[in-house]
Amino acid sequence: MLRAGWGSWRACLLWGLATLIVSQGFALFMPGALAHPIPGAHIQNPVLAFEFARTAAHLDAVFGVVGDPLRDGRIAGMIQGNLFDYLFMVVYGSFVLAFFGASAAATGNPRWWLAGWLGPLAAGSDAIENALLLSINGDMATPQPELSGLPLPVWIKFVALAVACGLAAWALGRQRAWLPALLCLPPALAIWFGVAAPLRHGEAAVGTIAIAWIAMLGWAAWRTWRDRKAAISPR
Question: Distance between CA atoms of 129 and 222, rounded to whole angstroms?
Fold first, then answer.
């Protein structure tokens, strides 16, 4: 069952395409911009700003202060987006798992499956993070202690995904896919700058994960096409 659903390049391609499609759905719900800039921060994405928030002032920057006519709409959109996020967790966790399942088959090394479980680990941590975010949005007047507990699941998620990208670079190198491997390597290095200073470097660090996923998806598409061509070509 595990190998059928997550152990081939075709499965990886399908989960990757699902991840890409579902990721675009967030634009239907999430606020498009911060209510106002966070002083000293280098972050424009309101979703990441919410995840990195540590104080009530950060929340005001994301949603607006009490009395802002757009505040309730931003909060409602964030709630809807975070509920939609549970679907995203399923598909991106499966994409990461399938990439390493396919790599295990391609290299003949079943230990790559162990790296694949970083995807479900990240998704599970994301689910905990989401519960905290929804709780904060449910009672904006008293966001503690949820804000205090937020950093741990947020950074378990992003570190797990970044480490998975670094291991993907290794797996791709074993398959002599040098360009995709090069594109997958930066998250494993950049994420630590994000951990150290989320509001200054977090958005840039997390952005490298998306680039790595595109490289992983591209390799899955190439391998799926190549394997299919080999299967139908005359012997």
Answer: 34
- pTM for the whole thing? 0.95
- Per-residue buried b or exposed e for 50-64, using 16+ beta carbons within 10 Å of the residue's own CB: bbbbeeeebbbbbbb
pLDDT in tens, 28-84: 999 999 999 999 899 999 999 999 999 999 999 999 999 999 999 999 999 999 999
In angstroms, the CA 95 to CA 101 distance is 10
Go through the chain and tell me how many residues it has: 235
Measure the CA–CA gap between 22 and 56, rounded to whole angstroms: 30
Question: What is the 3-class SS of 105-156, one letter each residue?
Answer: HHHCCCCHHHHHCHHHHHHHHHHHHHHHHHHHHHCCCCCCCHHHHCHHHHHH
DSSP string, 149-176: HSHHHHHHHHHHHHHHHHHHHHHHHHTT
